[in-house]
Design brief:
alpha/beta; DNA-binding; 22 strands; 6-stranded parallel β-sheet; about 45% helix
DNA sequence: TGCGTTGACCCTGGA
DNA sequence: GGTCAACGCA
């Protein structure tokens, strides 16, 4: 393949060693900006060039967008036919693909539903209600987090119960068991199942295990540092037959520990795969010398790392800049001015991005940029398929594809209004539970209608619903567009949008976008790409369930991107603004108590910094308005993030705030503590992240500080527990490091 | 009995 | 600013 040769000659020696690795397990430690995507694609291209069947190559990417881009690159190198035959996708998408093929063996309907977070919470909420769990302490989200943790560690409800040390844990185990039963009855899997069920299949079914471990000749994994235990097991099982496992990762960029990512997958790779080779990519091709030095200095503060030193042939470039703003509006203004200045100098907007820790921070930026007429796009927040109107219509499609899908059914059963409410729902659930196996709600409703057990009004509504679903089911074999058009017509969905004021136009546009997305499925079908006729809807729904907002990013539009640091992973920009660099925000308050979580926050900051090629602006706000417990907005002050101070002084220009009150400079009294001056009554030492002393409770760490009617109210972690105390009862607690 | 309204509580990140 | 349960009206 001559197409491919020039690619290899462009590689540095380490990159080439990875690409030309003869076989067997290989761990590539790829620092930020070291060209790992090139290495991965070159590796695949080389495998294909050397005669490996593209159908026998499986590559895991972190996002659907990364999968699409990788496929496109490979297509340019080796042609469309081979690129299409590759298995490239996220763990979840690959899990769906395998499980759809194995549905019968796994005991699933072929078109199983995929429950998203909202569906999951609905299930858990119902269970909690049934068990009469007190709301406080048993929030659905909390229960679900525990269940998800268990699943990504491959712990079953029975095992969970056996290991449960406390009454709370035993309750979780009980909910977990009921949750699993509910999903089974609904023919549904959640995100964690998409991985765990593949592992279980290969472990428990020797024939399937052998077949899939031979199915591929090469397995490749990108962003390996963010795989969890279940994903590790899936990789291990799929590579067991041949041992050709090529993983690329960077321990310094592991930022999904909260989602179960297990860094030991990287650190113990050589133990898990004996004879593994190791290649390090340490030459950075992205960032200027100053940015790279800053990033290296920051990450050097972490202890849990393999250790590496990125170097670059690039010039030093401009120094990084830090600006302390008075509040979040002032911060947004400064960022806007920075963007203005770049534009005035001829820079494109799409070469810049604003990164932040929490999605809520986008609001102030949004209004400032909108007011200034700077084009921007927010990535994240409410993703397209999570919007109400889109979810409503997708729920109809789900109900058509999978009649057992309870979450979808309950979403649409009274939409539009059919006079069906809680009372009827209770009867449906009772009817469903009266049979073994338990009936799907839709079947139970049909039974109630048949038995004449409903009031006239409820029966009329139910009949209308069941007839609509039956009619749509009858259209499944035809074009998806026709089915969708009929759905809109019969539900009068667009008309119902008009009734609700200003957002109607936007919602209507979203419905149209959904229609357009469905049309592309039909087009793919026409081009012979779908697996089998009639599957197009199910395939579309699986894609929709796994789609993220970041996947929709397209090149070419000239706008500034606003996104979380998590979402920025894998991207790069000429100029990067990192906003909200305050203790309690970045690092986030929830991480201040644990060394390992704090190190993860530092890695997140490192990831953010290393997105930049030429220019970095760091910002913080002395006061930030936040929603607080107790209700309403309060101003809360904080210290400047420790991460800013970890950047060597010579690399960083600090700007004074317009009012020039807090200096934000290290070393001059409490100047590092802008929040310290929050209001006249504020105790200067009681800022987030500070160690303080309390007469009664002793030494503690301030987790939160906010201005209340009685002065500065602080949430402080003492040895005896977390307490809420007034700032004036606190005194300085000595050095910053709570032993 | 359904439905609209009110009030309590929440909020890190995301496949 | 958003969600959800409780409440009271039609």
């Amino acid at each position: 393949m001559t197409l491919f040769t020039p690619v290899v000659s462009d590689l540095n020696p380490e990159q080439r060693a990875a690409v030309e690795h003869p076989g067997g397990p290989l761990l590539v430690i790829a620092g930020a900006g070291s060209g790992k995507t090139r290495v991965l694609t070159a590796r695949i291209a080389r495998l294909l060039a050397s005669g490996v069947d593209p159908r026998a190559v499986l590559a895991f990417t972190f996002t659907n967008r990364a999968a699409r881009e990788m496929r496109e690159r490979i297509e340019r190198a080796v042609g469309a036919a081979a690129a299409r035959a590759l298995w490239v996708g996220t763990f979840h998408a690959t899990g769906v693909r395998i499980l759809r093929q194995e549905a019968a063996r796994v005991g699933l309907p072929r078109d199983f539903a995929i429950y998203d977070r909202e569906d999951q919470e609905g299930v858990v909420r119902d269970i909690a209600r049934r068990l009469a769990l007190p709301e406080a302490g048993y929030r659905p989200a909390l229960l679900l987090d525990r269940i998800s943790d268990a699943k990504s560690a491959l712990v079953s409800p029975a095992e969970f119960e056996r290991l449960a040390p406390s009454p709370f844990e035993r309750r979780v185990a009980e909910v977990y068991g009921l949750y699993e039963a509910e999903l089974r009855a609904s023919g549904a899997l959640d995100f964690d199942d998409l991985i765990a069920r593949v592992v279980a299949l290969m472990r428990d079914d020797p024939e399937a295990g052998a077949r899939w471990s031979r199915r591929f000749a090469h397995v490749l994994v990108d962003e390996y540092q963010d795989t969890n235990h279940a994903q590790f097991r899936m990789v291990q099982a799929l590579a067991a037959g041949h041992g050709n496992l090529f993983v690329v990762g960077d321990d310094d960029q592991s930022i999904y520990g909260w989602r179960g990512a297990d860094l030991s997958n990287v650190l113990d790779f050589e133990r898990a795969f004996p004879g593994a080779a190791l290649v390090r990519l340490e030459q950075n091709y992205r960032s200027s010398g100053n940015i790279l030095r800053a990033a290296n200095a920051v990450i050097a503060n972490n202890r849990a790392r393999k250790g590496k030193n990125l170097w670059s042939e690039r010039e030093d470039g401009a120094r990084l800049r830090f600006a302390l703003a008075a509040d979040e509006a002032d911060e947004a203004r400064r960022i806007r001015r920075f963007l203005d200045a770049r534009a005035a100098a001829g820079g494109r907007y799409d070469e810049a991005a604003v990164l932040y820790r929490t999605n809520a921070q986008s609001r102030a930026l949004e209004s400032e940029l909108r007011g200034a007429g700077i084009p921007f796009e927010i990535v994240g927040g409410v993703a397209f398929y999570q919007r109400r109107e889109v979810k409503d219509l997708v729920a109809y499609l789900r109900a058509v594809v999978n009649p057992a899908d309870a979450a979808a059914f309950w979403r649409i059963w009274n939409l539009p209004r059919r006079g069906l409410g809680d009372a009827v729902r209770a009867r449906v659930e009772a009817r469903a539970a009266a049979e073994r196996p338990v009936l799907a709600p839709r079947a139970a409703l049909a039974a109630l209608v048949r038995e004449g057990a409903l009031t006239r009004a409820a029966a009329a509504g139910a009949t209308d619903l069941l007839a609509l679903l039956a009619e749509l089911e009858g259209m499944r074999a035809g074009p998806v567009e026709e089915l969708f058009a009929r759905l809109l017509e019969r539900t009068r969905y667009l008309e119902s949008l008009d009734e609700e004021a200003e957002s109607a136009a936007e919602r209507r546009a979203n419905v149209e976008e959904l229609a357009a997305a469905l049309a592309t499925v039909s087009a793919r079908e026409a081009a012979g790409e779908a697996e089998a006729p009639g599957d197009r809807l199910a395939a579309f729904l699986a894609d929709a369930a796994l789609a993220t907002d970041a996947d929709r990013l397209e090149e070419g539009a000239d706008r500034v991107l606003l996104l979380t640091a998590h979402n920025a992973k894998g991207l790069e920009f000429a100029a990067v603004v990192i906003a909200g660099l305050e203790e309690g925000l970045m690092p986030h308050a929830s991480a201040l108590e644990s060394d390992s979580e704090l190190e993860e926050e530092r890695r997140l900051f490192y990831v953010a910094l290393t997105r930049a090629r030429d220019e970095v602006l760091l910002t913080a706000a002395a006061y930030r308005r936040r929603f607080a417990p107790g209700g309403g907005m309060v101003a809360s002050g904080a210290r400047i993030s420790r991460f800013v101070d970890e950047i060597p002084a010579g690399l960083l220009d600090r700007e004074r705030p317009a009012g020039a009150r807090p200096t934000g400079r290290s070393g001059d009294g409490d100047g590092r503590s802008p929040g310290a001056t929050a209001g006249s009554r504020g105790a200067t030492h009681a800022a987030v992240g500070r160690v303080v002393y309390h007469e009664q409770f002793g030494r503690g760490l301030v987790l939160e500080a906010e201005e209340g009617s009685g002065g500065l109210k602080c949430t402080v972690r003492f040895a005896s527990g977390v307490k809420r105390v007034l700032g004036r009862f606190l005194s300085p607690g000595g050095h910053d490091d709570p032993a």
